Amino acid sequence: MAAVLVVTGSARPNSANHKVVALTKAQLEAKGVDAIVADLAAISMPFYDAPMPPSSPDFVPEHDSVKQWTQLVADADGVVFVTPEYNHNMSAIQKNAIDWIGKEWDGKPVALVGYGWTSGAHQAHAAARESLAANLKAEVLDTATNLFFMKDLQPDGTPVDEQAVTAKLGETLDELLAKIA
Ligand SMILES: Cc1cc2nc3c(=O)[nH]c(=O)nc-3n(C[C@H](O)[C@H](O)[C@H](O)COP(=O)(O)O)c2cc1C
């Protein structure tokens, strides 16, 4: 059974992320996938403070939280980032998690799901793609699921039309599953 890691993107207690992550997990499970949620707020990594970059051959994670996160990514056949748009970028908690890992991103299939207001998560996705694909050589899918508040989601993350949101998510998840099959 394929294992897909679903990565949270917000530490806010009332975050819309909870509902979008739950929908993503449920849909992966309905497709016969072992979906594991990486709750970045619970894993609680420090801001990057290692003496050398993770791309260094001598880099060894020391924090238990970073070891846990690195193992989750290493074990996953594919990764889905569920990304809110914060100031035209991905959230800092996700960027910090990306920064903590080097070689485990190389060749890793990654799908992007995001949400926001005027342009959804368009700019957050562009930033995530630049970090993950251009620099870290992850296999980021060309397409992404971009959800808009009021059209697709209520501000608390509840789908306006669950079937329509499920269909949008399904396109991206099917593409990811085809890649890791
Ligand atoms: C720090 C911060 C910055 C934000 N910047 C943007 C933005 O650039 N574009 C946007 O569409 N929404 C922006 N928003 C609104 C968020 O899309 C909205 O609050 C969303 O619910 C945040 O995701 P979360 O609930 O998972 O934390 C911002 C929200 C926060 C907290």
What would you say this structure looks like, in words?
- The chain is an alpha/beta fold.
- It is 39% helix and 17% strand.
- The protein contains 6 helices and 6 strands.
- Strands 1, 2, 3, 4, 5 and 6 form a 6-stranded parallel beta sheet that branches.
- The termini are close together.
- The mean pLDDT is 97.
- Flavin mononucleotide binds next to loops.
- The site of flavin mononucleotide has 13 residues, from loops.
Which ligands does the model contain, each kind named once? flavin mononucleotide
CATH class: Alpha Beta
> What does the average pLDDT come to?
97
The number of strands is: 6
Structure in a nutshell:
This protein is of the alpha/beta class. The chain is built from six helices and six strands, in the order βαβααβαβαββα.
